[in-house]
Design a protein that fits this description.
This protein has a single domain, classed as Hypothetical protein af1432, CATH 1.10.3210. The protein is built from 16 helices and two strands. Strands 1-2 form a two-stranded antiparallel sheet.
């Protein structure tokens, strides 16, 4: 089976809502539902999160990152971390666990390597989006971080199916055509470059994310970035370009997929994009490291 055939099958499943998730994803979605209960207290949330050790470690690590540090010093427990971060950030961190779990724990070393690279990319984009929203586009930084965490959800899902469809790991052959793709897939005339969007949109729907975040991810797939960034979509697009680690499923060349700040510098208040990123380097570094846990 060739890659375009494998993608066609996944798109067909996505269009019919037939996504395949692991049991761990279902468990984490239940945590998300529990946190979303009206008037859920920090104490109640902490008890729920302590049942997910990786999530608990991530919550404390992010609370102690430079982006959220306070003069009062480090926090040493989940409840204190939640009080510092707030529930919007907590929901983003739960989403980060779900997104990472979607890819599963393949025994294939190539798949595992790509999952790790994709998560490193996502963490960098999330951290950059948080800083850019706070310092440049003046948007809610927690929402921007949330969008960065989930922006590659379609790619994570595709990697989760790579054991079943090894061709998904192949490089694209944009000039090829295949007559063996499912009929309904051909009828919908979904272009090759939008297949990830179809799959990603279906996964996002299952995560029940805020409309604003969904629209920002859509902008990443199809939008044109304004400079300087104005919307959440613009901010996410810029963060994606600035991330040092590129998505392993990105078929663009390095120069197309990644550009240094100096190449796209612009004025921000009394400084420039370059100066903002230099001043925020510790925030980006510690926050992305905390998210990778």
């Amino acid at each position: 089976m060739e890659k375009n055939q494998a993608l066609a099958i996944l798109v067909e499943e996505a269009l019919h809502g037939e996504l395949v998730f692991s049991a761990s994803v279902a468990t984490s979605l239940k945590v998300q539902e529990a946190i979303d209960v009206p008037n859920c207290s920090a104490e109640s949330a902490a008890k729920i999160i302590l049942n997910e050790p990786l999530l608990a470690a991530k919550v404390v690590a992010v609370a102690n990152s430079a982006a959220y540090s306070r003069p009062s010093g480090e926090v040493t427990n989940v409840k204190a971390a939640i009080n510092r971060l707030g529930f919007n950030t907590l929901r983003a961190l739960i989403a980060s666990l779900v997104v990472k779990q979607i890819a599963g724990a393949s025994k294939n070393l190539v798949i595992r390597s790509k999952v790790n690279q994709l998560w490193e990319h996502s963490a960098q984009v999330a951290a950059l989006a948080q800083v850019l929203a706070k310092r440049v586009s003046k948007l809610d930084p927690d929402t921007a971080m949330f969008a960065g965490i989930v922006h590659e959800v379609g790619a994570f899902y595709m990697l989760s199916r790579a054991d079943e469809f090894p061709a998904l790991l192949e490089q694209d052959d944009l000039g090829s055509s295949d007559t063996n793709t499912p009929a309904s897939f051909n009828d919908t005339f979904i272009e090759k470059e939008s297949q990830e969007a179809v799959i990603g949109r279906a996964v996002l729907a299952n995560l029940n994310l805020p409309k604003e975040v969904n629209e920002a991810v859509e902008a990443l797939w199809f939008g044109l970035r304004a400079m300087p960034p104005e919307t959440l979509g613009d901010t996410l697009l810029l963060a994606n370009e600035l991330a040092r680690t590129q998505s392993p499923l990105d078929t663009r060349t390095d120069t197309e997929g990644h550009r240094c700040a100096s190449e796209i510098d612009f004025v921000v208040a009394e400084g420039t994009l370059v100066s903002v990123l230099e001043e925020s380097e510790d925030e980006v570094r510690t926050l992305s490291a905390a998210l990778i846990i």
